[in-house]
Design brief:
By secondary structure, the protein is of the alpha+beta class. Helix content is 18%, strand content 27%. It is built from 5 helices and 14 strands. Strand 6 (150-156) and strand 7 (163-165) form a beta hairpin.
């Protein structure tokens, strides 16, 4: 089991030893993640989600400022303070809770919506048929980007502006009709693709996908989610026969964000994440809610 033998220890610069160590390090970086995947039509995923939560770690650290050495964070959108027109940094603005260490972005000026009682019922403000298509895991609210069907999640130390990484990320999707329409891509701090996963279909039901890296320390810097193949903001009806697949999200789960390791190749990534947070906060200040 020893990594170094005497030859490598005392002749560290011999080519054979360098090749061996380089190969070993690369194998570690390319190790496959553990994938948790399941579907449900009644918000019951059995023990799949609880197993994923256990992999991420206990306890749920809620809105407590981080970081913690153990535990996880979760977002369920259901708190009364979450507005319909949700700011991208709503879940990590140190000025007020909730502080969960997640900041969202998309190509449409970071526009997001959370269905709210009295204002919107499962996005019926976009199309009256939507409540018949979407199911909730934790009632009554759901989440979606607007103006696009794709968005990013970046991580920060909760209640702080320090860019961070996580070891696992999972999400619950509602009404995935067409296989391949909904994809989760995970990237490291250098914007290298760690892994890509297609979410299982479950028409008018729920699909769960969780990804966890057990052999690496918090490698996930950014998550890109493609939710369906059509922007819900267009107001179109969900119509599989016409090739239209509207998909929204419910709960998110991720491990406790840990400060990203700063090195020369990662400087641009860290500056970009910090700029994203700054832009999100400036937009938040310009919104009255």
């Amino acid at each position: 089991m020893a990594i170094f033998n005497k030859s490598c220890a005392f002749k560290a610069f011999k080519p054979a030893c360098l090749v061996f160590l380089s190969g070993l390090f690369s194998a570690q970086l390319q190790a496959a993640p553990i994938v948790f995947s399941d579907v449900s039509s009644n918000a019951n995923f059995g023990d799949t989600i609880s197993a994923f939560q256990a992999a991420l770690g206990d306890p749920n650290n809620g809105n407590a400022p981080g970081p913690f050495s153990e535990g996880r964070r979760q977002i369920n959108w259901d708190a009364g303070i979450v507005p319909f027109d949700m700011p991208a940094d709503f879940f990590n603005n140190p000025a007020f809770p909730p502080t969960r260490g997640a900041v969202f972005s998309n190509s449409n000026d970071n526009e997001f919506r959370v269905s709210n009682d009295g204002i919107d019922n499962e996005f019926d403000t976009f199309n009256a048929d939507n409540p018949d298509q979407f199911e909730t895991f934790s009632a009554p609210r759901l989440f979606t980007p607007v103006g696009t069907n794709s968005f990013d999640v970046n991580f920060f130390i909760p209640a702080d502006s320090t860019p961070a990484t996580v070891s696992g990320f999972g999400a619950i999707f509602s009404d995935v009709d067409i296989f391949g329409s909904t994809v989760v891509d995970l990237f490291d701090i250098n914007d290298n693709l760690l892994s890509s996963h297609t979410v299982e279909t479950n028409s008018e039901g729920l699909s769960f996908l969780g990804v966890f890296f057990d052999d690496l320390i918090a490698p996930i810097f950014r998550v890109n989610i493609t939710a369906g193949n059509t922007d819900i903001g267009l107001g179109l009806a969900d119509d599989t026969a016409a090739g239209i697949d509207l998909v929204v999200l419910d709960d998110l789960f991720y491990s406790e964000p840990q400060a990203a390791v700063v090195s020369a190749p990662t400087t641009i990534a860290l500056l970009s994440a910090s700029l994203l947070l700054l832009i999100s906060r400036r937009k938040t200040k310009s919104n009255a809610f």
